[in-house]
Amino acid sequence: MDLAPWPLAPDDLEAARRRLEQRVHRTPLFRSRLLDERVRRPVWLKAESLQRSGSFKARGAFNAVMAGLEAGDRRGVLAVSSGNHGQAVAMAAGELGLSATVVMPDNSSPVKVTAVRAYGARVVSDGVTGQNREQVAADIAARDGLRLIHPHNDPLVMAGQSTVAVELAEQLAEVGARPQAILAPLGGGGLLAGLCLGAASRLPGVPVFGVEPETADDGARSFYSGELVTLDEVPQTAADGARTLHLGQRCWEVIRAHAGGVLTVSEEELAEAAYWLFTRLKLVVEPTGALAVAALLRGHAEIPPGVGTVCILSGGNCLPQQLAEFTAGQS
Prior knowledge:
The protein has about 325 residues and is of the alpha/beta class.
């Protein structure tokens, strides 16, 4: 049963918006005078770190699970995840009466593994690595008759993530603002692709940029070469949501056609951004979630100086000691 329409049409994005109205939070849009002064531009921070399950992933997970139920598919669901997607799928499945299994690398963040189990999912991690996790998940799905909900390369997941842009456009309109750029973390590409699709209808002409760690630059290399690049090994970065080997094929199709560009930041710049968000705005943002702000603090020629910019804070699932260790030495 093919539940995932491709390519996505405006009606698919609108259906996702309707499904999620009573299921996810309308996350706040923050401003900071200190940040505006630091980067010499007006900045809006879209805090998906305060979303249900702690990240934007709740949007795609709920949309995919609910679309399946609407089509009469009551199979248990399976996710492959470094943590945030797994939490979101486990939460959605539990609320909607389905079983959930989550395949996670054996070095996944303990707080994310604990959260996945707390939502009622079975976690499979023994012998799972960043390189074999998708094959392990495919094997389990086939063996146990489960529906695999991919963390990014699923059109229904992308449609769910597009609601970030829809909601953002509504919030900006309420204060009479219109940005000239949107920055978002980039891992497998589901968030960036969804934002590109949502912004095309709600914020036409506003470029959307992905941001990834320098050590995980497959997205940047793909975008500027025009060919999908696959890394040879799992990248070493504190941003666990960006430890992907390549963009999803369907995500890549959207990003190549619609994104404004892909920017990179160093681990030091990423640590500075996470520290800045915690100490200045009192926001707990995990390293992946701080990628957009890191790019803004660094300054990139692709983003003209002085233009209003939105940064998507994609998640906040981290332990206090993890954040303390990562930001040690910042001031």
